[in-house]
Design brief:
By secondary structure, the protein is mainly alpha-helical. Among the domains are: 1-37, no CATH class; 270-363, no CATH class. It is 76% helix and 0% strand. Helix 1 (2-15) runs antiparallel to helix 2 (20-34), helix 4 packs parallel to helix 12 (237-255) and helix 6 (92-108) runs antiparallel to helix 7.
Length: 541
């Protein structure tokens, strides 16, 4: 009876139009006040406990990092790299759009941000070379869902906070499924492109891949910082999120100059001589290589003491290799340059360094107060407040479930009915697929996870595997009406009606359904990488 009352309160408030957070929090308070033997003081205690959840601190930092990286400049660079990599295949521009979404997902952790950033560029490009608007919209709507599957995923952080599993293991578990989902979409595009005789982009050679990768390198290195820092034992996921936010700010403001007081200012001007450009760029690549080398060496070293013990040798090795990079670039780009002329090239590049460093120093006091920075941080703050409000109320809801032993009661019923892990996962998929049509992913996950998690543990389902299954269901929920968020975002950037976007996305949704079945019943896709690097998850709750 208590189960029915609690869920009637939740869904009654939802259907009455109350936000998810209000529905979860208010139903929990009403249930405790009138139907439970629990004290109302538990509400205050639970809210205080939720505010002390260290894992949840990762969310605002990941949101902020995503906001800084969600600039037109970053998206353009990723699209260029993707086109250079796969654009020469038939249907290559569409495949490049999927690859761009995969790369941007690894930077943003957000599906809507991925659709907006990549979709506004990719859809226009596909239309220019002869793709239909419907085909282009369907691709972006589906590929954008990878934002919550490929780490760092905010939805994975939410699941980890709700179930007390490792964020690091969840991130690892999402890598292989994310790659498989992306390549399945690309394979489907290739088949359809052969049938529809869609065009291919001309092959521009490996040099274009290198140039495009170099241009997008500072953005892509954020992936290395997050994952390398976590799995190298340098950062916790929360600390990695904080470092990612700072890194994204510095790259956007000072390196890419896509926003802030330095926006539009080029590092190298057309008026600079070829000699000074060569010397400047050679030193830039040398310094960049040294920094990347030292960071990767730090991530690869087990323990801080070991780092300091070998710091001198690593610095010396990095300097030697960096000097090699400087010499090689100068000889490559310089006019009949010889090794003995390298110092003169570097000296010629000093005025460019002086001009840029002077601009950076003079503009730095205005970076934090600039309109672009304020707009970005305020937007990130609004998103964070919304997510945290939902999460805190959902944790209160989970407390009520646990206190009333509702998951245990449901577990007993399902076991008595003859459910095993196979049929249980079918039930979970059906529940989430239906729920995903009507609710936002984080809210639905926070309602369902506390209920199904104990059942899964009783039936021997790996908690990391369960998390990936739930995330993939949330992914499909992003593109299923009536509340599929990616459908609305795609409709907004294309000007198409929601019905047309749904029809356009439908063929590719079928691919994701096949992927869901694969992920559900082949657990090793999710668990192989976390087991190999970190061992199995130990459940303590």
């Amino acid at each position: 009876m208590e189960i029915a009352i609690l869920f009637l309160l939740v869904f009654g408030l939802l259907f009455a139009g109350a936000p998810v957070a209000i529905s979860l929090g208010l139903s929990s308070v009403l249930f405790i006040a009138f139907f439970s033997r629990d004290s109302m003081s538990s509400v205050a205690l639970q809210l205080f406990t939720a505010s002390q959840n260290y894992t949840l601190l990762a969310i605002p930092f990941f949101v902020l990092a995503s906001a800084f990286m969600s600039t037109g400049g970053v998206a353009h660079r990723l699209v260029r790299f993707a086109i250079a990599s796969v654009g020469h295949f038939r249907g290559g521009l569409a495949m490049a759009s999927v690859l761009s979404c995969m790369l941007f997902a690894a930077l943003s952790g957000s599906s809507p941000a991925t659709v907006v950033a990549i979709g506004t560029i990719a859809i226009a490009g596909m239309r220019q070379v002869g793709y239909s608007k419907e085909f282009a919209a369907g691709i972006i709507a589906n590929a954008g869902t990878l934002g919550i599957l490929i780490p760092p995923s905010i939805v994975m952080v939410v699941y980890a906070a709700a179930t007390d599993v490792s964020v690091g293991r969840m991130f690892l578990a999402g890598i292989i499924p994310g790659l498989i989902a992306g390549f399945m979409l690309m394979a489907a595009i290739y088949v359809m492109a052969r049938i529809k005789k869609l065009p291919a982009e001309p092959w521009k050679g490996f040099l274009e891949i290198v140039e495009a990768g170099k241009d997008a390198g500072w953005g892509l290195f954020l992936i290395v910082i997050i994952l390398g820092g976590i799995y190298g034992g340098v950062f916790t996921p929360t600390e990695a999120a904080a470092v990612a936010a700072v890194y994204a700010f510095l790259v956007s403001i000072y390196i890419y100059r896509d926003m802030g007081p330095l926006k539009g200012m080029r590092w190298v001007e057309e008026t600079d001589s070829r000699r000074s450009k060569t010397g400047f760029l050679a030193s830039v690549y040398g310094v960049s290589f040294l920094l990347v080398f030292l960071i990767l060496a730090f991530f690869a070293t087990d323990g801080v003491e070991a780092v300091w013990a070998s710091l001198t040798s690593r610095v010396i090795a990095g300097i030697v290799l960096s000097i090699g990079v400087v010499i090689a670039y100068t000889l490559w780009r310089g006019e009949n340059a010889k090794a003995s002329q390298v110092p003169s090239y570097l000296v010629a590049g000093v005025p460019i360094w002086y001009r840029n460093l002077k601009a950076n120093i003079l503009k730095t006091p205005f970076c934090l107060s600039h309109a672009d920075t304020r707009h970005t941080t305020v937007g990130a703050a609004k998103t964070t407040i919304m997510l945290m409000f939902i999460i805190v109320n959902a944790l209160l809801f989970a407390h009520v479930l646990t206190a009333e032993r509702i998951p245990q009661a449901i577990t007993s019923v399902m076991i008595d009915a003859g459910f095993n892990w196979f049929t249980f996962l079918i039930a979970v998929n059906v529940l989430l697929l239906i729920g995903g049509q009507f609710m936002e992913p984080s809210g639905l996950l926070l309602i369902v996870a506390p209920v199904v998690f104990p059942i899964a543990m009783e039936l021997g389902v790996d908690p990391i595997h369960l998390g990936i299954i739930m995330v993939v269901n949330m992914e499909i929920g992003m593109i299923t009406p009536p509340i599929g968020l990616n459908l609305f975002v795609t409709s907004g950037i294309t000007g198409m009606s929601l019905v047309k976007v749904v029809r356009a996305a439908a063929p590719f949704v079928a691919v994701l359904f096949v992927f869901l079945i694969l992920v559900t019943y082949v657990p090793s896709i999710s668990t192989a990488l976390p087991y190999w690097l970190m061992g199995p998850e130990i459940v303590t709750r």
